[in-house]
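Running log. JK asked me to keep both predictions on one page so they can be read side by side. First protein, sequence followed by its tokens:
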Amino acid sequence: MFRLSCWLLVRIELLALTFVSCLPGNNTTPTPCPAGTANSITGQTSLSSCVACTSGYYATSAASVTCTMCPKGYTCASATSSPTICPTGTYSTNSSISCSSCPAGFYCPQPYNDPIVCPMGTISAGGSITSCSNCGSGTYTPSTGATSCTSCPAGSKCPSASSLPVACTSGTYSLAGQSTCLVCPAGYSCMDPTVSPVQCLKGYASAGGVVTSCTACGSGYYSLTNGSSSCTACPSGYAW
């Protein structure tokens, strides 16, 4: 009788141990990390393990392992939305949350490219700029990345907006904003190449061109009008 009781007791204990070892574990479906978060580590037990995407990164779907960097040319204002391409004339760098206006002196033909400096002879005021504007006749830019065209200075010529002014040669002149130097006209003096020609007075004359000053008429010659190009010889039968 004692042996039988012991056998039953042992049998009951073995059955109990077997029941405990077969208890089910976690039998629920894993909860995915929500959009805008990610988790790259296995075996996590709480949604607190889902890490929110940092600024400029996104995860549009649930159960993301990693957040994706916002690419150049796009903006990612929301971590749960797909990137939005930047408008024409703007740009963005990697991991941007907003698009940037093209800076002054640059142009932005593609939103995924860095701004490109305007070459000499062109300008940009910035903003939504896809190309630089050419400077007009009689203007130039002294360097690349200009925001405004510079008027060609008086006494110089600016044949090209992309090159520096060239001083007028003797006998020529130019006023501010002119692209070429003009030849000093006959009957005028061009001592100063930065101002308009000065008309010769009576008794003086100038052939113009390389002759920069009015010359007094010599003995036996005369000029009766202002702006004479030459002096006239005193005719026979007359004396001066």
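And the second, directly underneath as requested:
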Amino acid sequence: MAKDASFDIVSELNKEEVKNGIQIALKELKNRFDFKGSPFEIKLEANQLVIKAEDDYKLEQVKDVLFSKLIKRGVPLKNIQFSSSEHSLGGNARQSAELVNGIDKDSAKKITTAIKNSKIKVKAQIQDDQLRITGKSRDDLQKVISLVKELERQMNAKKQNDADNEYLGKLIKEIVDHSEVEIEPDMVEKRTNEIIKYLEQNIGQYGMDINAYLSMSGQTMETLKEQAKAQATSAVKSDLVIAEIAAIEGIVADDAEINATFEQYKNQYGLDNEEFEKFKKANIENLAHDLVTRKVIDLLIKNNN
């Protein structure tokens, strides 16, 4: 009887990719306007990563940039285990992390589930910090290798998308926080009502009205409105700042772009001509706004890199 073949899946850190990620992150940070005159450092010492910055806020920003570069280079962030941050007498923040090899249990379970769902005739067994794959056919083992590579690609893509969104949110917030714009109370009130209405629509899908939601969440309508108002104020201010940047830079959404995007929606949702015209009429202002916002965001990211 032929002996079963096997291989082990072990998550190992590629130190060269870690070093490359550090160099790219340092280059970006040196060109960031918000780091001008602000001390920071990223060092790799044996199996320890050391990050220093002016304060905890800047420390987190340095980590965000570094993480986004490491993800792009396929470095698993779960293998970088940070300790608590430390502070010197001058107030500077420092944090170190151990670089460890081995696949974590959560990732091992996800891979095991994916292999079972694939119906490939192999056995997957979690053994400490590695995952052993055993099968009678080398072809089946090769299929698993291809599957794991695709899973890794998807997980890295998701992590990169999450990192990009978090970085983008912080970038816009920082610009908005340092901008002075006049906000009309009516604009905030309108957006507040829209936020509450959207919440009511969402909970209504589960057969719940606003009173039941308030009771379950332990809130009052007053506290809910205050939360919605704070969210609305931030959103309105962001819109005004983005609109001002668009006006200064001459950024617009032309008819060709708007119509092309609407055509994509028409094909995506399978709308007939009558449905399409109604959809277009109801959403044309929002779409134009979204296209301009996307262009402004792309400009901000480009100028900040």
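Observation for JK regarding the second prediction: The mean pLDDT is 83.
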